[in-house]
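User: Fold this one for me? It's 2-oxo-4-hydroxy-4-carboxy-5-ureidoimidazoline decarboxylase.
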Amino acid sequence: MQLSDFNAASEADAIAALKPCLDIERWCAELAAARPFNSMDDLVAAANRAANPLTPAEVDQALSHHPRIGERAEGEHKEATLSRAEQSGLGDLSGDTAEKLAKGNAAYEEKFDQVFLIRAAGRSKEEVLSELERRMNNTAEEESAECADQLRQIAVVRLEGLFS
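Assistant: Here's what I get for 2-oxo-4-hydroxy-4-carboxy-5-ureidoimidazoline decarboxylase.
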């Protein structure tokens, strides 16, 4: 999609285009209402502003769509396709790595009662595992803030991909 097409789209079509980036109704509506954008930089800046802050309810809503790191997103909808592409950059996640991720995911979910979320795009599997271990030391409040920031980062990566 071109930025000019997004700017010219109906509000409903603009929101539908944004949902796979970050499925938070308020965020999508704010970006759709802020059109037209003169450049990708303007769109990304608006996306960052709209995602700062995300409420705990919005984070919970968005997390309900994300698979565990190391697990393949199911389905053929746009969000699942994007998730698979983002995690594919981690390389082979079998054997020892898969076991460490599974144990780390389980411990994280036990502690924080949500899936571990991280922007996988541009990261190695070693970096993801290191971040998982580091974030296990967070308080619930610290982790909530990190999760919201990771959602924002994922949204920006997906936005940039949508308009490339």
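One thing worth pointing out: The chain has a mean pLDDT of 87.
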